[in-house]
Amino acid sequence: MDSAAKRDIATVILARNEAPTVGAAVTGAMAHCARVVVMDGHSTDTTVEISRRAGAEVHSDPGTGKGAAIRASLDLVTEPVVVFMDADGSHDPDDIPRLADPVLRGNADLCVGSRFTGGSEELSMTFGQLIRTIGNIAMNVAINERWNVQLTDTLNGFRAGRRDALLAVGLRADIHTIEQEMVMKMLLARHRVVNVPTHEYPRRFGDSHIKIWRQWPRFVGNVAAHVVRRTRPVKRD
Ligand SMILES: Nc1nc2c(ncn2[C@@H]2O[C@H](COP(=O)(O)OP(=O)(O)OP(=O)(O)O)[C@@H](O)[C@H]2O)c(=O)[nH]1
Ligand SMILES: [Mg+2]
Fold it and tell me: How close is the Cα of 70 to the center of ligand 1, in Å?
């Protein structure tokens, strides 16, 4: 990626108690963008210090979850293209150019990494992951049917989007449901959403912050609410 393209990209890394992996995420991302922002979820380990030492700007999130952190980050960066990446080692920073490219070229407004075409070592190894995989596919099918698109992954947190469009659609989710909300609100506003293959690695340390048994009704309810909502006549610029 040339330096003119890099100037237009900010990477936002979501991190809550990810000290063992956040440093590599920051260093890897810095090679591909103008600015790396770590949104810290009030970590009690050394996530903040390690992120700063690796060269990131660090901001505290509002304290209500990953969705709130993503929403707050959109007001902090100024670059036209924002890449969102996890800090737990699941995402490969070298995929950033591939994710950002369709948005930089004006071929897409949101580009989501697809684990179904890029491969995942996180899906379907345990019963909980199997439930997540089935739920993920079911939600993709609902979204594809509703908006006549052919997306293979709508929940992956590794994604690039046009900052102005993401701000304009009015994201509201506080928790991980922001990922599907973002896809559906972008489609509702008639923006172009695409997938590119990205590989997902297993979380290397620590525990998941998703409480799947408690949170799945919110994921399903969120999709159902948006799928039945009528498309707003939004002007695309
Ligand atoms: N800023 C912030 N980051 C968070 C919060 N909750 C989770 N994260 C980060 O968001 C990323 C994704 O969270 P995970 O718990 O890994 O969720 P997941 O990838 O769906 O689940 P795993 O299977 O455990 O990998 C990780 O880098 C977390 O550290 C939060 O409340 N605030
Ligand atoms: Mg993870």
Answer: 11
pTM of the model: 0.91
Alpha-carbon 17 to chain mean position: 18
DSSP-assigned letter for residue 57 = E
Quickly state the pLDDT bin for 134 (edges 50, 70, 90).
Answer: confident
Residue 24 backbone phi and psi in degrees, to 5: -65, -35
Of all atoms in ligand 1, which is nearest to the CA of residue 209?
A: 15
Query: Residue 232 above 70 pLDDT?
Result: no
86 in ligand 1 pocket by Cβ < 6 Å?
A: yes
Contact 59, 39 (CB under 8 A): yes
User: In angstroms, what is the span from residue 17 Cα to ligand 1's centroid?
Assistant: 9
The CATH number covering residue 103 comes to 3.90.550.10
Task: Report which DSSP code applies to 207.
Answer: -
- Ligand sitting nearest the alpha carbon of 173: 1
Tell me the CA–centroid distance for residue 177 and ligand 1, in Å.
12
In a domain, 186, yes or no: yes
